[in-house]
Amino acid sequence: MLLHIGLDDTDSPNGMCTTYLGALLYRELSRLAEPIDLPRLIRLNPNIPYKTRGNGAVAMTFEVDEEIVPEVKDLVLFYVNQLADFTHENTNPGVAFFEGEIPERLREFSLKALREHVAIEEAENVAREVGAETFKFKLGRGIIGALASIGYPLKTFTYELLAYREPENWGKERKVDAESVFLADRWSYPFTYDNVDPYKRTVLIAPHGKDPVLVGIRGIDRGRVLQTFEMVRFEEPVAFYQLYKTNQNTDDHLTPKKIGELKLYDSAVVRGRVSRPYWERGRHVFFELEDETGKIRVAAFEPTKKFRNYVRKLLPGDEIIAAGGVKEHEGVLTLNLEKFYPVKLVPKIEYRKPKCPRCGGTMKSKGDYLKCKRCGYRMPKKLIPVEVPRELEMKIYEVPPDARKHLSRPLVLPGGEERVLEALENSK
Fold it and tell me: In what residue span(s) does the TiaS C-terminal zinc ribbon domain sit (predicted)?
């Protein structure tokens, strides 16, 4: 029989990692039963405020003999009870088990957990409907992700190889040879990606927290991911590694919507018109977007760095497709921009001084009149409108790799433009 196992919310900002716990379980359970494919790392709604870190749940499926099902379940619950970080208030683990073929109701729930806000009570209701077994630790919020990871229809997927540290090194500086990462990236890009930031010359595969992860290497080619890992040099021991199938970098979280339909914690793609000039506050750049159903504030926050320069070039009247997550900022519903596409740009007009009508020289402002720098000719001060080229192209602009959400698909990958262009077609 098929036994599906899901777990979530076992980590915290202070340490642990659900993928680490999942990888250990996958190794142990593979000795008792036959695994069906790789374990799955399923990222859920990135906008949920009480997520522990990356809002990632882990699922795995085994072909098991019916008589050992209780043993398998006990082992899973034992590992969660022993390794989850129960000391943190936001860590509320959940475990789910489901036997047999995945029903459509569970798939629908999974996609809702990816794109919207889901309550624990809804997860419990779905579990009862489909006959899934759930176990809650503390508040048990993790049953949402545990169920969703089991039911997730992983039609589009990428890979991530996660290598883990020896416990004595947790919380210490990670020792990864940067030059070897750049060399590996040059060989494998774009089949693996987001390994480095080529502009800042920084390594992106190594996290900075206290968790057990040493590096994470993402890609669309399973073999290249493994070979890239083998090319990286480490100056500390690697405890073990695990390759996951994942919905990371798929854009599956983005849903085309009208602005008036947007709710807190949604992930969406909208088409609208810039309705007022941009403004800045604390290195963040904001503008307002409207359509026939309403308005919303849009933000390019400071971590998006040079991406903000493109946002600054937008003018009132420009029509764009905007993709991102809906959060509350300073009490205002705000679309946190992940990428945008200029659909139609208004003319940009600048007012300039005319050339000297006598000699063609340059005119200089002198109070309420203009004076030619070459021949001295004077004339009343009058500026003329000139249309100048816009500095935006009809292409998709995206945030840099170190500001990218786990779920956002880089433009370098096949299908990286799909959701935005799909929204463009649907809005015609």
Answer: 354-392
